[in-house]
Amino acid sequence: MPNYPSAPRHSGFVPGEPSLPPSRGSLTTQHHRGRPSWCPPPAPQEPGARLYPLHALSVANIPNSSRGKTSARSSTIPTPEGLQSRRCKLLEEDSPMVQAGKRQRQRYVTKVGKCQVNLGNIQDKKRFLSDIFTTIVDLKYRWFLFVFMMCYVITWVVFGFIYFLDAWVRGDIGHQGDPEWEACIENVDGFVSALLLSVESQRTIGYGTRMVTANCAEGVILLIAQSIVGSMIDAMMVGCMFVKISRPKKRAQTLIFSKNCVISRRDEKLCLMFRVGDLRESHMVDAKIRAKLIKSRQTAEGEFIPLEQSELNLGYDTGEDRLFLVEPQIICHVINHHSPFWDMSAESLRREQFEIIIILEGIVEATGMTCQARTSYTEDEILWGYRFEPCMSLEKGAFQVDYSRFEMTFEVQTPAASAKELHELKELEQQEHSTLSLYWDHLLQPCALPGPSEDALVGMSVPSSVAEGIRDEREFPA
Predict the structure, then answer these.
(1) Whole-model pTM above 0.90?
(2) Domains of the chain
(3) Which of 271, 296, 347, 363 is most buried as measured by Cβ atoms within 10 A of its Cβ?
């Protein structure tokens, strides 16, 4: 423990010492401990005043928030201190001063393609019943099998009870073994026998001991109704089971993506690249790929937009986004002035916080159903100055794909500057080259071509002696 010569000052002033006006930094440290320095102190709130938020500050955690425990009409307005604290905390997390290793990241989409979004406080849940087929198909297998069994059990029990009630009202149960009694339902002496009659009738088992006779019209109508209801349940349940088993969701497990993205130069352009492959020999038909950038930003008016989605061009204009996915393909996004990575350099990439969502869609060749595979890349999974190693070779008259090299990369010489800076440097070099070429052409043919203008001479790095020589030739021609 350190030995203080006097009691340490936490706040206020010490008697006997001159008090100095606190600086702006000290005020920020005292009143907003743990907040960034640019966060202003919360405005004083008058008694009875209510302040409403002007924009969304963050994405609420629905399972753990108090919003999920209260109704929408009785939601409380957060205090200005709470809003200011949430906003400063969000700015601190998005601040470039925070290192990437210390940030707690929550993926929007996992590496296997699962969306990390929970839906809560859904008021009108009867909309799910209007689309009952999709609701049943989307159930998990344990709940789907439960619904599958309960549909049959409930109909058997309901019609069995109606059979028992009809036999009891007509007196068939009390006249068992009477040859002179004309029974409506034969050999039904209780609820269990009526339940067996219901099962045998709906499943068309027909043992022959229990049956509905022609002595009553209600028995015939009841048997027809059960046959129709049983056929409808069979059609719906078999259809749901077939669709659930044949869903192309499992087909996406054989569509793989590289674990990392790479950034390097291709055809003198800075490109963002990743690799995709198909493990099955049955190929995807009409495969298409697209990419989304998920990043929060704040507008010039102060509106905070959480998880804003922007499109990354993967060759939509030239048709390169349509793939013939027979062997692994390297998908390329050219970083141009339309790209959101136009101003991003290798150094600024470490301070950014975003997520790239990759969506691959295609038709399954075996079933004709549409399949979709997804993955995501964060800024920590982008390698600057790397390329993918080739994984295909020619062996014994056929192309051989080695998937053990699917993830392998190697380092290449890549400038750390952004694509914008490289473009400006290239334009400057082209301008200087064109001006110099014009100068040398004028020296070779002084009468045929006019020399460069004085403004061009000033803008280019031409020696002053050469520039003076050109001016002398203009003033005193030979």
Answers:
(1) no
(2) 139-245 (1.10.287.70), 250-417 (2.60.40.1400), 427-475 (no CATH)
(3) 271
